[in-house]
């Protein structure tokens, strides 16, 4: 059962990226993550992820964690990429994807911390 809850949390952590993929498959451009990563999008995605987790697990901790993971996606993406946080705002972030070695040096500890949590 614990493994299933972790799977749902993994999905919640990736929800904005899954929205990006779905938009791309529909050939909808989401400039700098506007429709998937900006605060208004996260305000929609977080309750949806929480509701899905609640329907499946009936676990309040998993439900809360799912919502928080969706919301924490944007600040972590500011480290690795350049995203907008609000419509009409300029994209900003460290954009470490342009520097693969630095990106790995930052993302591996973030991944380990997430796995430990």
Provide an overview of this structure:
This protein has 117 residues and is mainly alpha-helical. 68% of the residues lie in helices and 0% in strands. It is built from 5 helices and no strands. Helix 3 packs antiparallel against helix 4. The longest helix is centred in the middle third of the chain and has 21 residues, at 60-80. The radius of gyration is 15 Å and the shape is globular. The model has no long low-confidence stretch (mean pLDDT 91).
Index terms:
117 residues, mainly alpha, globular
* Percent helix: 55-70%
Following the backbone from N to C, one meets helices and strands in this order, namely: HHHHH
Number of extended strands: 0
Rg (CA only): 15 Å
What is the number of helices?
A: 5
Mean pLDDT: 91
Helix-strand category: mainly alpha
Shape: globular
- Unreliable spans are none
Strand content: under 5%
Euclidean distance between termini CA atoms: 17 Å
Largest sheet: none
Write the layout of secondary structure elements.
Layout: H1 2-13, H2 15-25, H3 39-57, H4 60-80, H5 100-116
Helix pairs in contact: 1-3, 1-4, 3-4
